[in-house]
Write a structure and sequence with these properties.
single chain, 209 residues, 5-stranded mixed sheet
Length: 209
């Protein structure tokens, strides 16, 4: 498989003359926990080797790259909790997290590359960011791939911490995704405040704790 590179970034740098941020999220599919978005502006002279779609990396590789990216790049991270996901739906919550991640960067990018089909909104103008949404962007743009790693590791760490508070749900193992073990825990213990009440398997099981 071809590794992601700076081709998309180079095109937008040529068009805008400024820096380019890659944006991706983790946590659209789980029944519990937040959706987390990351925005990354890489320093290409110091970009870590081996950056690719987080789904194609082992946990050890993701954590190593997380540490290296944080040390060498501009990083913005934002999360949207389950209560807001329930209010706005997962698409709306994801776009909100992406917008907030870009807003939290220490520099203002001239263009934003996002994974998927939707471009988040610039909160200062109310308009979509300059840039583009790229289907399978985490496999094409190195900045988007870096964002996928930061978002994934951040969210996984949060779910491991949640498992320490609620060990009976096994969040450290399934990270909130609807595995058989998670569904059994839901049936036995009911939903927690960290579950997404609007998601069908959780809704069926009632109000819970």
């Amino acid at each position: 498989m071809t590794l992601p590179d700076f081709s998309f970034e180079d095109r937008w740098i040529e068009l805008t003359g400024g820096s380019v941020a890659g944006v991706d999220e983790a946590g659209r599919g789980p029944l519990a926990g937040p959706v987390v978005a990351a925005a990354i502006v890489l320093n290409r002279e110091r970009a870590p080797q081996g950056i690719r779609d987080s789904k194609l990396l082992s946990e050890t590789e993701r954590e190593r790259l997380f540490d290296e990216i944080v040390k060498t790049a501009h990083v913005g991270i934002a999360l949207v909790p389950p209560s807001v996901i329930d209010d706005f739906n997962i698409r709306g919550a994801t776009l909100r997290a992406m917008s907030e991640a870009v807003a939290s960067l220490a520099i203002i990018p001239s263009a934003v590359l996002t994974d998927g089909r939707d471009q988040p909104t610039d909160r200062s103008t109310g308009l979509p960011f300059s840039g583009e949404a790229i289907v399978k962007g985490d496999q094409k743009s190195i900045s988007v791939a870096a964002a996928s790693i930061i978002a994934k590791v951040t969210r996984d760490q949060m779910m491991v911490q949640l498992a320490e508070r609620l060990p009976e749900y096994g969040f450290d193992k399934h990270k909130g995704y609807p595995t058989a073990a998670h569904l059994r825990a839901l049936a036995e213990h009911g939903p927690t405040p960290f579950h997404r009440k609007s998601f069908k398997p959780v809704k069926i099981l009632g109000p819970g704790r």
